[in-house]
Structure formats: structure tokens, C-alpha cells
Amino acid sequence: MQNETQRQLRDVFGTFVTGVTVVTTRDSQGQAHGVTANSFSSVSLDPPMVLWSQSLKALSYPAFQDSDHFAVNILAEDQIEVSQRFARSGADKFGGLPIDISESGMPLIRGCAAFIECRKIATYPGGDHAVFLGQVDQFRRMPVRPLAFGGGRYMVAHPHDLGAGADDPSDSKLDLLRAQRLIHHALPDLADRLKGIVGLGLWANEGATVVRWEPGPDPAVRDLVSGHVVSPQASATGLAFCAWLPRTRWHPLVEREQARVDHSQPIDSVSEEQLEAIRREGVARSTVNRNGLEVAALSAPLFDRAGRMVAALTLADRADRMPDDPNHPRAQQLREEAAAISRRIGWQEPQLTKSA
Ligand SMILES: Cc1cc2nc3c(=O)[nH]c(=O)nc-3n(C[C@H](O)[C@H](O)[C@H](O)COP(=O)(O)O)c2cc1C
After folding, report:
1. Where on the phi/psi map is residue 90: left (φ > 0), alpha (ψ -120 to 50), or beta?
2. Residue 286: is its pLDDT beyond 60?
3. What is d(CA 63, CA 67) in angstroms, rounded to the nearest whole number?
4. For residue 233, what are the contacts with CB-CB under 8 A and spacing of at least 6?
5. Does the C-beta of 58 come closer than 6 Å to ligand 1?
6. What is the pLDDT of residues 160-184, one digit of tens each?
7. Above 80 in pLDDT, residue 352?
């Protein structure tokens, strides 16, 4: 197979996301060996069997070939360094690493998510690899999350946002949690795609709060602070909540802010026309001058399956890159990204019904 085709095949193999293990053994001289391997797979429950495959070129291959036992250490999510250490070819990889020794003499690395000790019962040829089949003697599981690996990168494994339980329409609190988790995970990619600073806004006990800003490439402002309560009427995030949440939820906060800020202004500076326009256009907009730089923010609502606004997706950038035009491509893209997230948490776009 040509190099290029081989690389493409490796990429295809890489789309199959796995855990990460360090398989260990001990040679006839008593020396410990270990190698990072994601080829591990469970095979059978009765009798309990597992397999993994090792490159014939690995320095530790003779040790695994000769040994009657091996142990599979399933790495925890904070053990990337352990994975890297055992992925480097060489002699002593165990120096300074806290380990225990199992009954059969196999090194067990502390802090792992699980251990499986095996007796080797067969070795099969597998091209440039050897496939080791082991019968499980002992196993143990720890209450920590496993490390994952896919597409050539380390990953963390979270339960799927649309997994079991996601279909209960009465579960609005879970919807909110799911939405938050989904957006948290999506934020870095969103900031890349939207080419600006992206914020996740939630309605908390003090009103609109941007719980996280993701700077994105070349951010216009570098000192945005996550976790700040923002103005309900002067920020895009706050205005989005005012437009889509019931008035009773936000009006007391607007009154309070108004009383604090300026007594000469009318109490309710957020007009119903303004909110109606925001709802029609699907985004709220605000601008602020930060150290002489005009910064604009656009905010779009995220809805749950019941059509309630659960969060705001906010995009901030220099004002000259975000014209005050709801049909500008950046506003359109923000609306589309927000709608895509809403759909993932069960929201169904209202269908226009034609009158007879
Ligand atoms: C995530 C990951 C998974 C790996 N999986 C395997 C595997 O399943 N089999 C294998 O032979 N090598 C695998 N490797 C590569 C070995 O860990 C690497 O070749 C190691 O240096 C071999 O050590 P040795 O030459 O000291 O025996 C993997 C490496 C990484 C980073």
C-alpha cells in the first residue's frame, strides 16, 4: 500500500474513538515493560477474554511474546502524560511512577480507571502486528472517568447530550443542563466558525450573566471576564433575554438598574417596540466603547423543546466588522448556529401555517 493511502487508512482507523491503555508485563529477568495501546478490545464474557495487538517492531515485543501474563491498565482522563511516557520507545519507562504489583507480578499503574490482569492464552499473526488473546484473571474498576483517543487526539468522554432520558418532554431542567453542556463543548468551534469572541449567556439569579467567553481567533478585546452579570438593557445578551423571557422575569431587574444608574431617565427604557424588533430580527445588538474601541455584540436566543429561551449565544467583535444590519452575514450565521444548537436540544422551529 502506498504511503499516502496508508496515511488515509490510518485516519479512517482513527475515526473509531477508543480508550487508552498501557499494557504491562514482566520479562524472565523480572524487568517491567509497558506500552501504550488503543488496540485493546473486549472479546468474550464467558469465558472472560480480551485482546490487544502489538507492532512487531516494538522494543518490548519480545518481552510480551515470551511472557505468560499481561495487565491492561485503562488510563484515566488525567493520565495523558502516562500515555505519552509509555508511547515513547525505550527501556525504563517506569522510573518515578507510582505502581503496585499484582499477584501475578504485573505492574499496575496507580490512578487508572480500571485494571484487567490476564493470562495469555494465544498469539495470532496480524500482519505487522501480533494479536495477543488473554483470559481475564482479575479486574478492578475505579470511580474516575477514562481517557479517550480519536482522530489522533486525546479526548474526554462525556455522556451524549441527546442520550437516554432526552426524550422526556417534561424535563425542562434537564434541557437547560443539556443545553449548557452542549454549548460549553461547542464554544471553541463556534468561536472559530463565527470568527469572533463568543459568549454563553444564562439567566441567573442576578439576571443575564455571561458565564463564559471564548476568545476565538484574533479577539478584538482581550480582557473579557467570564461570570459577569451584564446589563439587561444595555447589553445584547441582556436585551435578548428581555425580548424572549416573560416580562415578569426581567422587569424588576431593569427597574433596579434604572434606579441605581440614573434617576432622571424614565424607568422603563426597554420599549416594547424595541423588543418586538429584536424578536422579528432574531438577534439583539449593542455597542460599547472600550478604551476608545467601538465593540459590538450580537445575541441570539437558544430555545428548548418547549420553546422557552434557555440561553443566549453572543458574538462580540469590533463594531466596524459587525454592521447594524440584521441581514448582515454575521447576524445570519449567528442565528443559524443558535438555531442548530436549539434543534439539538429538541426545539422545533415553528412552522408557518397558511390560512385558508
Ligand atoms: C494512543 C496510542 C495508542 C497506541 N496503540 C498502540 C497499539 O495498540 N499497539 C502498538 O503496538 N503500539 C501502539 N502505540 C504505539 C506504542 O505505544 C509505541 O510504539 C511505543 O513506543 C512502543 O514502545 P516500545 O518500543 O518501548 O515497546 C500507541 C500509541 C499511542 C499514543
Report:
1. left
2. yes
3. 6
4. 239, 242, 254, 257, 269, 270
5. yes
6. 654 554 445 455 666 677 778 888 8
7. no
Q: What is the pLDDT of residues 291-341, one digit of tens each?
A: 899 999 999 999 988 888 999 999 999 999 999 999 999 999 999 999 998
Cβ of 59 less than 6 Å from ligand 1: yes
Q: Which of 142, 144, 124 has the alpha carbon at shortest distance from 133? A: 124
What pLDDT is recorded for position 159? 66
Residue among 20, 25, 38 to mutate when testing ligand 1 (max atoms within 8 A of CB): 38
Which domains, and CATH codes, for the chain? 3-156 (2.30.110.10), 172-344 (3.30.450.40)
As to burial, measured by CB atoms within 10 angstroms (0-12 exposed, 13-18 middle, 19+ buried), residue 281 is: middle
Cβ atoms of residues 92 and 59 within 8 Å:
no
Give yes or no for residue 95 CB within 6 A of ligand 1: no
